[in-house]
Write a structure and sequence with these properties.
Blueprint lengths: L13 E5 L3 H6 L5 H22 L3 E8 L7 H24 L2 E6 L7 H13 L6 E9 L1 H17 L10 H6 L11 E4 L18 E4 L9 H13 L8 H7 L1
Parallel strand pairs: 1-2, 1-5, 2-4, 3-4, 5-6
Helix pairs in contact: 2-3, 3-4
Bound molecules: farnesyl diphosphate.
Length: 248
């Protein structure tokens, strides 16, 4: 996490995105909702490419939440097949671009093909450093916190951790993004103003940006608008504006 004394950087190091609006994009065209998810892949590609272009170090995409399992079975099925299909098709190009791919979320809820595809893509891109692309699948912020809390409790129970040593840094390391700086910028497309159980711990001091663009229409110009808005924000991390300005 940046210290309060650091001035806001023009380009966020880590961007987290809720890609919302696929269903409405499709419905407006009298297409099935799943056509919106397929169309959303183009926006994923554009966002990854533009992250590399702008020098963003990490991008975290919310592809499927813990709660999305409750959607109609055929939509869940299409989404799961789409992840595997996209992975197989795009992994070489991602590797060439220097992208390291990583999945966060509860893999115990996923099918074998998905889990194997994810592990293979992670392995194939493990040495890349240009952009860390975290894809959240079967992920929920509460699940992440609970899983970390359970692990910490086990360590204390087993004598591997002294309770007094349990501080924010130690707890943060147990989370799914424990090795990643907190997101500087959060973007949600599709017009809703919610965090929807995304990275609950990590977003504590993230700058939030909401836009009405439906995800399949989100492009480099929309992304630039979000980054420009971010660059104008004053990040205070709990301090006063005078303190932050005085420290510059
Ligand atoms: C939310 O829109 C979107 C999703 C639940 C799925 C996002 C998935 C993709 C963009 C597909 C590919 C992704 C990767 C990383 C390969 P919604 O369905 O809730 O839209 P609505 O609010 O208009 O109904």
């Amino acid at each position: 996490m940046p210290t309060p004394q650091e001035p806001a950087a023009a380009v966020p190091r880590h961007v987290a995105v809720i890609m919302d609006g696929n269903g409405r994009w499709a419905q407006r065209r009298h297409l099935p909702r799943t056509a919106g998810h397929r169309a959303g892949i183009k926006a994923v590609r554009a966002t990854v490419e533009h992250s590399v272009r702008r020098g963003v170090g990490a991008l975290t995409l919310f592809a499927f939440s813990s709660e999305n399992w409750r959607r109609p079975a055929d939509e869940v099925d299409v989404l799961m097949k789409l992840f595997v299909e996209v992975l197989g098709r795009e992994v070489d190009e991602l590797a060439e671009k220097g992208v390291r791919l990583r999945f966060i979320g509860d893999r115990s809820a996923l099918g074998t093909r998905s889990v194997e595809g994810m592990a293979a893509a992670e392995e194939r891109t493990a040495g890349n450093e240009r952009l860390l692309l975290n894809v959240a699948v079967s992920y929920g912020g509460r699940w992440d916190l609970l899983t970390a809390a359970r692990r910490m409790a086990e360590k204390v129970r087993d004598g591997a951790l002294d309770l007094d040593a349990l501080d924010e840094a130690a707890f943060g390391r147990e989370l799914q993004l424990g090795d990643c700086p907190d997101p500087d910028l959060f973007i949600r497309t599709g017009g809703e103003h919610r965090i929807s159980n995304f990275l609950l711990w990590n977003l504590a001091y993230t700058e939030l940006y909401f836009c009405d663009t439906l995800w399949p229409d989100f492009d480099a110009a929309d992304y630039d608008a979000a980054i420009e808005c971010f660059a104008r924000r004053e990040r205070r991390f709990g301090l006063t504006s005078g303190q932050v300005r005085g420290a510059r």
